[in-house]
């Protein structure tokens, strides 16, 4: 997905990531294809949880719900992913996608199972 780590706030369990939507992601309508937008949001949510566990765990997504609020343009984008609540059996995550002007383009929530990363 071309994700670029920018920062992680341990206190709020929020990650900020950058993405670049290339021309190949653009539909005939002139915006990023919806499934790829979901991928950006999924990536931000997953990395938020992985960073929150210091890399020991990753989420196994049970469901992802997302809403496209505006057409997502080609080019630079930023996402914020956050751990809403993490238990032993279930993790709740959310993410938002923004354009370069900080306008909200899309948002998502996810319910996950916490899984240990192999080899740790």
What does this structure look like?
- The chain has one helix at 34-52, and strands spanning 4-9, 14-21, 57-68, 75-86, 91-98, 104-116.
- It is of the alpha+beta class.
- A six-stranded antiparallel sheet has the order 1-2-4-5-6-3, with helices on one face.
- InterPro entries: HotDog_dom_sf, PAAI_dom, Thioestr_dom.
Quick overview:
With 120 residues, the protein is an alpha+beta fold. It is 16% helix and 49% strand.
Record keyword descriptors for this entry.
120 residues, alpha+beta, Thiol Ester Dehydrase, Chain A, 6-stranded antiparallel β-sheet, 1 helix
Total helical elements: 1
Q: Number of folding domains? A: 1
CATH homology group: Hotdog Thioesterase
Structural class: alpha+beta
State the share of residues found in helices, binned by percent: 10-25%
Instruction: Tell me the span between the first and last alpha carbons.
Output: 25 Å
Q: Could you state the order of secondary-structure elements as H and E?
A: EEHEEEE
- Portion of residues in beta strands equals over 45%
The CATH level-2 architecture is identified as: Roll
Rg value: 14 Å
| Poorly predicted runs | none
Q: Summarize the main sheet.
A: 6 strands, antiparallel
Shape: elongated
Task: Enter the CATH topology name.
Answer: Thiol Ester Dehydrase, Chain A
Keywords: Hydrolase
Organism: Pontixanthobacter rizhaonensis
Domain Thioesterase: 30-105
Protein name: PaaI family thioesterase
